[in-house]
Amino acid sequence: MIGIVSYGAYIPRTRLPFSVIAGRPAKDGDPEKAVAWNDEDAITLGVTAGIHCLAGFDRAQVDMLFFASTTLPFQEKQAAALVARALDLPQNIQTADQTGSTRAGTAAIRSAFDAVRAGSARSVLVIASDVRLAAPGSGLEMKFGDGAAAFLISEGDVLAGLDHAADRTDEITDIWRPTGQGFVHTWEDRFVVQESYLPNMKRVLGALLDESDTKIGDYDRVAISAPDARSHGDLARSSGIDTVALQSPLFGRLGNAGAAFAPLQLIAALESAGPGERILLLDFGNGAAASAFSTSKAIEKTEGRRGVEWNLARRREIPRYDDYIKAKGLATTEWQAGTNPGLSATILFRERDDDLSFLGQRCKQCQAIQFPAQRICESCFAKDDFDRVRLSDRIGKIITYTFDFFFPTPNPPTIVTIVDVDGARIHLQVVEVEAKDVAIGNEIEFVFRRIHESGGRPNYYWKGIPRPDPELDPTRQAS
Amino acid sequence: MANKESIRDKASIVGVGCCPFGENWDQSPADMIVDAAYEAYADAGIEKPQEEIDAVFTGSIYSNKGPHECADALKLFNKPVTFATNYCATGTDLIRLGVMSIAAGLYDTVLVVGYDKPKDRGVAGPSVVVDRVRDLPQTPAGWFSLAAATYFEKYGAGREDLAKIAIKNHANGCLAPKSFLKRTITEEDYFKARIISWPFGLYDSAAQTDGASAAVLTRTDLSDRYASDAIQIKGVTVRSGPNPQKDPGNDFLSWKPTAWARDDVYEMAGVNDPRKDIGIAQVHDCFSLTELLTYEDLGFCEKGSAKEHIAEGTFERTGALPVNTDGGLKTFGHPTGATGVRMIYENVLQLRGQAGERQIPDLAGKMALSHNIGGHPTSCGIALLGRS
């Protein structure tokens, strides 16, 4: 059977409470949104979701990658190629970006099913990721959130299959962002709901129910994308969707995550579903898409997967709106960002395996693992006799640390550590931890992040975060 | 293996010079090089350097002009002029090159000039280098502070011990006429200052300054020709080390190059017991903890015992083994390429009894040590001076 064999989500740990946007201190339980911090973007979120999805699977078996986002960091230079490199996927595979619409995520899932069904791929990784920026103080600001969802689609022991689908396309200037602009725009919300959202979603839902000869009441879970909570409620009520079946749209916890929004709701539905359930997914953006899934027996064996709930439970609140403005690069600074050519492309090219795939080397003579690649073994001085070994999915241990207040960052200090990974030593920034909680011996795992913007473009490398609770983490074992 | 004693006493220092270290806004590198070299010439009694200097060894970290900058400043043409760099150990390495050239019999008298001009860059501290994605932040405070968490945890030392080193070096700097900072500090000042890279605050960190320092070296058997009281070079070495950030065997309790250079230079100079044979030391206090680790790495005290010796005042001017008698990198200033030569300047003045208010008594029969480390640190240079 063909279907979803794994999923993984990533929601940035940082949360901006709406009370902080309004200039008040946050209280427990205040509504909030998930925000990518200054070292995160659609690519880094997507890579982490991909790692979560691939935990326990052989990455060498992936033979196609679709990356879906409306916020690709490069307009020319493929995001999927970079994501594939960071995930250490094989190079003899097809990679493609899907973009331009918040429907890009579900479109990529559908393309993956088509590819596997047609026999053009055996195992397709789909990653949907978005970091959409709303103008500070605008109505969209509290509606948007950032996140990424990944699915592995292949033949095998599937969690859920795709039974039916229906589509609709529509030309309308309702929500848009022209090339070169940073903020998403929207026309009056009543126009968007009445002339774009409700009619497109109802028609695609009707088409799917007709085509599949099902009724809305046949679905155990219904996950719906929407511009905001109110339009979500309007659609659910007017379509007769039972509130028990209705999947929470996560407004006030996550926010509308663009191309990743419907996929994240699908993950939330899968992680709470039992076998034999029907899941309906409705997505929106210049038209609409409806997909009907049904779960299999394997859905019972997903404990330890890093899904939506796992991510939502990890939080770090921003205390000041100004921190958010700085992290998003919206603060006025003394010097404009440099227009220099940036880091040497030839050096980046030579160091891809080290810096992007995060491959160390194992000496075939003495077995010592080291980083980065070097011609002569650091331990036994053997020459050119190494295997590459991936370090990104291993657990590291802090050997020593310092807190650097000198390096430019929106929230100093930069926590800098030496981390031991099975004998290799890595000079590594550690994030998402308070300085007071850093100690020698702390376990960390690796996350792909933006390291700086030299040349006016994102430059990526790996950082450390504290290792999540190993009890919740059966797919990764410290060696 | 090399004959380690082969250069002992072969070369002598007959002239030393040093321009005032500081924010020398109105001086070019050439201006400072001329001040330092002509002071060294005068010290040696050299009146016609174009005729009397056979070769020049010069170096800097920030200059990209190569050997011509020094040759042109001093109008030393039609001579072998070598530009060498070894990070912050450049100065000691320049002395080593000079000594080797004399010991080889190639030249009679050579000039060594170390200099740097970091204050033309428009930043108060070292630059944050962003030319890669890996190994960031690349700041010296960030590199050297990596030994703090480990050392503090293992030996129970803390910032209060580092404070005493900073207070000592500030006091010593007040007595050196050419030092940059002439201001004593209190423990309260130390703890109130901002943190640069924990545990290093402002007063743990060397003062980056402009400066140039020079020395005239000659064959020991020719040293009587010169006007000054000649001091012999007992040993000088440089040792490389692995990058501690990726070295799988690094314990972050000491810096390997220092221990390796120590073994080498003590054998060269015939040091059996550093506490008996060495009377004064200028060590590389780029950061306070670096000075602390160096006490131990040079064998001045047992590993882990530095804080007791700091508390007892062993390394104060009045102590058993005074360290950084001119204020060190902390307050005399740290023009990277010049620092190792500046240490030679101080040790020569001390051994001759010309160090004025900061003169250490009873140096007769003792050696004077100078110590530089460079890079992350990935190199160490040590020189031992004395009298044959």
Structural features, described:
The complex is a heterodimer of chains A (479) and B (388). Chain A has 479 residues and is an alpha+beta fold. Chain A folds into two domains: 2-327, Thiolase/Chalcone synthase (Peroxisomal Thiolase, Chain A, domain 1, 3-Layer(aba) Sandwich), CATH 3.40.47.10; 345-469, no CATH class. Helix content of chain A is 23%, strand content 28%. Chain A contains eleven helices and 22 strands. Chain A has helices at 18-21, 42-54, 79-86, 104-118, 189-212, 229-238, 261-272, 308-312, 321-327, 345-350, 352-355, and strands at residues 2-10, 14-17, 32-34, 64-68, 94-98, 123-130, 147-155, 160-169, 175-176, 185-186, 221-224, 278-284, 287-295, 316-317, 359-363, 369-370, 386-390, 395-404, 414-421, 424-430, 443-452, 459-466. In chain A, strand 12 (278-284) and strand 13 form a beta hairpin. Chain A starts with a strand and ends in a 13-residue tail after the last strand. Mean pLDDT of chain A is 95; it is low at 474-479. Chain B has a domain at 11-121 and 208-225: Peroxisomal Thiolase, Chain A, domain 1 (3-Layer(aba) Sandwich). Helix content of chain B is 34%, strand content 18%. In chain B, the strands form two sheets. In chain B, strands 3-2-4-7-1-8-11-10-9 form a nine-stranded mixed β-sheet, sandwiched between helices. Chain B has a two-stranded antiparallel sheet with strand order 5-6. In chain B, helix 4 crosses helix 14. The longest helix of chain B is centred in the C-terminal third of the chain and has 17 residues, at 336-352. At the A-B interface, strand 18, strand 19, strand 20 and strand 22 of A face helix 6 and strand 5 of B.
Write a brief structural summary.
The complex is a heterodimer of chains A (479) and B (388). Chain A has 479 residues and is an alpha+beta fold.
